[in-house]
Amino acid sequence: MCGIVGILGTTAATPRILESLKRLEYRGYDSAGIATLNAGTLDRRRAAGKLENLSTKLKEAPLQGNNGIGHTRWATHGEPSEANAHPHMTDRIAIVHNGIIENFRSLKAELTETGVTFEGETDTEVVAHLLTRYLKEGLSPRDAFHKTLGRLEGAFALCVLIRGEDNLMFGAREGSPLVVGLGSGENYLGSDAMALASLSSRLIYLEEGDWVEMTRETVQVYDTTGRPVKRSVSISQVASTMVDKGNHRHFMQKEIFEQPTVVAQSLGRYLDPNAGKVTLPDMPFELATVPKVTLVACGTSYYAALVARYWIEKLARVPVEVDIASEFRYRAPVYAEGGLCIFISQSGETADTLAALRHAKEAGQRVLVLVNVLESTMAREADVVLPIHAGPEIGVASTKAFTCQLSVLAAFAVNLAAAKGQIDDPQEDAYVAELESAPKLMAQVLHNDAKLQTIARSIAHARDVLFVGRGIHYPIAMEGALKLKEISYIHAEGYAAGELKHGPIALIDENVPVIGIAPNDDLIDKTVSNLQEIMARQGKVILLSDNAEDEAEGMFARFEMPSAGELVTPILYAIPVQLLAYYAAVEKGTDVDQPRNLAKSVTVE
Ligand code: F6R
Known about the structure:
Layout: E1 3-8, H1 13-24, E2 31-38, E3 41-48, H2 51-60, E4 67-73, E5 88-89, E6 93-101, H3 104-113, H4 124-136, H5 141-151, E7 154-162, E8 169-174, E9 179-182, E10 187-190, E11 202-205, E12 211-214, E13 219-222, E14 228-229, E15 234-235, H6 251-257, H7 259-270, E16 271-272, E17 277-278, E18 293-297, H8 299-316, E19 320-324, H9 325-328, E20 340-345, H10 351-362, E21 366-371, H11 377-381, E22 384-387, H12 400-419, H13 425-436, H14 438-447, H15 449-459, E23 464-469, H16 474-488, E24 491-496, E25 513-517, H17 524-535, E26 540-545, E27 557-560, H18 569-588
The site of fructose -6-phosphate has 15 residues, from helix 8 and helix 16.
């Protein structure tokens, strides 16, 4: 989603800001812009579309100055045009904004009455004009900025430059993350550690309601009331070198293929194969006393939660509730006394998941998060953090984070089952050994990717594709459909195989490919029967299975999977559905790593 970078520097700001914005491209955006302050004067360049368009404009008309702010915008209010791109400017200030100003309509009406005219349709412009109004009323920059913040409702991270103030920058955080980077004789602002990776590793994470007044030499943080506060300095672990694609054509491809390695790394942090035990970090509560587990997440992370429900209920016999974060807190969830709420998020910044986390925390629940980005807001606000150790995930469509989430959730389920006395030592040992086998089996699946590429060509031009599975593989069917939708723009749905004949089977004809996820488990016969029902209606069934040789007759295609136990099969079957989506997208020539309309880190509700 939107990215921010601000530099109060001692050398030309524009190339440095561009470099930082490049690092933020992976978050997804549809326009970009930079403003600089040069000898007291503000100027800007903005462009719709990719950063190349902005770079071209900057080549034609360079921006001078050592102080600047830059932005990549993911449109919320107003189309992704140049006029709506940030920075927004008045004759006094330049501003970039992430988030949504919820009361912008009433503020706009108020400002319009005083004669202000608006250039575009964004909510951000009202902030620019409000601040300008207070400056023109004679307030000091600090008071004007604080007063402006007091008028805003919603979620925002802001970064501001003021004309005539060559050694001053303001930032504010409410709902959307903002980080201060400390340099020597320079200071910076960024929407996350990645934005500042080439500038500084010494970071101050602003807390909710914080705002900051920065010069090149000083950084002063204030809380909502305007009281000066001290916030600690952390050292960022984000590498300053750019993550590259290696020999791969896309980040997504690279991330799919590195899954055996990262899953092994991730499991290595939680499994002790010699002792045959799962080892989790110390928790400020006894897992054995947890009466109920609530799992909350969005998108792909939500599908990981759905898989985990099967494991936790089956192994630990603990009641589990799972919900989509954007729905969870609006339905008055009933928490159990002493319940454990688990929030799953690759980025650790997803606005809905974060809001749900805070809801649970306020209700006195124990809060555990599974995140990939260790420096994220969720990691900082949780009681317990289980990092998934997937490494930076750059492709917008989540792949390796999903299989690492599943691996950690499987380890967690085993640990909970042991803590609850539902499994004994030999059983725990067997589960640990089973999980240990995952990376090797994943590598086997990846080795046969050429076959999936051929199958993918046959679905790439379909209008609709269905994915079906049962039990623990029903969420994998939904994940397969999500991947295909996201990057190939083919309409796809994931269904519980047994549910098809209650309605969706009406969609089936000879043009509809149906991907059947059918490992050789207790449910295989039932799943294969459902696939037969589809074939009887001319559906093109593509079977992913380690068995069903006989049943494969009449199917359009079959992809042979290795056999594995119930903790590993969802991890394994995630791979062919990722590859089918990937190769279908390549066949169609879509923008695989930055699909249209999508953002990597969804920081608005
Ligand atoms: C799908 C995808 C999204 C994310 C979702 C949650 O490929 O990437 O559905 O899974 O936006 O994001 P996180 O896990 O960062 O909270």
